Amino acid sequence: MQTPEVAILVDDPFRLIETMKKRNVFPNEATVRSLIHGVFRCVAPRKAFELLIMFLEKEPMM
Predict the structure, then answer these.
(1) Residue 46: closest CA among 6, 19, 15
(2) How far is the C-alpha of 8 from the C-alpha of 27, rounded, in Å?
(3) Beta-carbon contacts of residue 2 (< 8 Å; ≥ 6 apart)
(4) Residues 11-44: pLDDT tens digits?
């Protein structure tokens, strides 16, 4: 089970992506891979999978 601190950190990549979109900055493959890897390492494989699906659905250029 995740601690509250880890749960907060796991949501950070999603906020980062939203900030990037607001600034018209689009993540490249390395950015996406790093974010997913970081989320997975925070003991949140389900969140990492959700992040990957989000990129595949919303960012078809990836």
Answers:
(1) 6
(2) 22
(3) 10, 42, 43, 44
(4) 677 788 788 888 998 888 888 888 778 777 776 6
